[in-house]
Structure formats: structure tokens, C-alpha cells
Design a protein that fits this description.
Blueprint: E1 6-9, E2 16-23, E3 29-33, H1 37-61
Antiparallel strand pairs: 1-2, 2-3
The protein binds zinc ion (ZN).
Amino acid sequence: MHTFTIEGFCDWCQTPSFVTKHEYIDGKCHHSCEKCLSFAVMDVRQFNLAEIEFRAKSLAQS
Ligand SMILES: [Zn+2]
């Protein structure tokens, strides 16, 4: 499901490489190389979960 066809720069190890795109729910995106994939997937998932939780709390308060 992740393809490394983009020639770019890995945001995790800061190395030029073929990368895959990771999208955050706030519209931002980062790229990771194959070596950093599992770490990147975990990172993005945690960010998105935190963001969902934050939004749920903000909604509950308003
Ligand atoms: Zn990397």
C-alpha cells in the first residue's frame, strides 16, 4: 500500500531517498523512506489520534 516512487527527502532520517507520502488529518503531509516506514506510520497514527482526541474535547466544551 506504500509505494516509494517519489524522489524526495525523508522527514524522519533527513536523507534524500525515494519516499512515500504520509498525510495528517490536519492537512499536512510528511514523506518517509522505506527504512523509516514503520516508525513514520506509528508517528502519523499517534499524531492523528491525538488530533481526533483534541477535536472531540473541543467539541464537548463548546
Ligand atoms: Zn528515512
